[in-house]
């Protein structure tokens, strides 16, 4: 099970984030989750939206450089230690985590988005520990 994430490469300059989010909004794309990583010269805006294929096309038409990546969405409960439990399961399964961020679904429920080296192994390990993962359709 995986979710499509769009990464948008943007210059790390004043106003660029406002520019890309305005462009997305003007094309009726509703951002459901986002994460930003940056260095001195550029940033990577990672987004989760309902129709990633259409959103990616819109962004490319606007001249933005994008990539689409399959990420893992794991349900997380609102109690101390929930994230630690997920991370321990992945660690014990030998799964390498590149990055993670939180996501609240419009349907209700909280999820952690994980970019890992092996989505299938990660999903199997989490399922074995009773931790639910979801796909694009289940989120929206």
- End-to-end C-alpha gap: 14 Å
User: What is the structural class?
Assistant: alpha+beta
Number of helices: 5
Order of helices and strands: EHEEHEHEEHEH
Strands, total number:
7
- Helix fraction? 25-40%
Low-confidence residue ranges? none
The H-level CATH homologous superfamily of the largest domain, spelled out, is: ACT domain
CATH class of the largest domain: Alpha Beta
Strand content: 35-45%
Main beta sheet: strand number and arrangement? 7 strands, antiparallel
Per CATH, the architecture of the largest domain is 2-Layer Sandwich
- What value does the Rg take, in angstroms? 16 Å
- Mean pLDDT rating: 93
CATH topology of the largest domain: Alpha-Beta Plaits
How many domains comprise the coordinates?
Answer: 2
Overall outline = globular
Give an overview in words.
By secondary structure, this protein is α+β, with helices and mostly antiparallel strands. It folds into two domains: 67 residues, VC0802-like (2-Layer Sandwich), CATH 3.30.2130; 69 residues, ACT domain (Alpha-Beta Plaits). 33% of the residues lie in helices and 39% in strands. It contains five helices and seven strands. Strands 1, 2, 3, 4, 5, 6 and 7 form a seven-stranded antiparallel beta sheet that branches. A hairpin with a 3-residue loop joins strand 2 and strand 3. 23% of the residues are buried.
Describe how the helices and strands are arranged:
Blueprint lengths: L2 E9 L4 H11 L4 E8 L3 E8 L2 H10 L3 E12 L5 H11 L4 E8 L5 E7 L2 H10 L4 E2 L1 H4 L1
Antiparallel strand pairs: 1-3, 1-4, 2-3, 4-6, 4-7, 5-6
